[in-house]
Amino acid sequence: MQWKPQQPAFEALLNALAGEVQPLYLVGGVVRDALLGRTAGVSDLDVIVERDALTVARRVADRLGWAFYPLDEGRDVARLVFTAGTTPLVCDVAAMRGGDLFLD
Fold this sequence. Notes:
Helices cover 31% and strands 28% of the residues. The chain has helices at 8-20, 29-35, 53-64; strands spanning 24-27, 44-49, 67-72, 77-82, 89-95.
């Protein structure tokens, strides 16, 4: 299945994240909603990277002009926020905690 964000800001964010680290996994509610055919109105994404989520998220936020918030430094989780219009776009970036995506 392929999912393409309707918001250009999310597309730019995912491209920037993918340029920083591979592999990059889109997880959470957006995956569920895409499987159910509900693709309109996405305002938040959840992304898993293998490691260094805080570092990667900070670099991408600085490059794109998104706000950066470390949510949990011990677990390597950050939040990126882009405000344009009435609905802020949010992306949580977390480091993988299991040995692979399935275990995580």
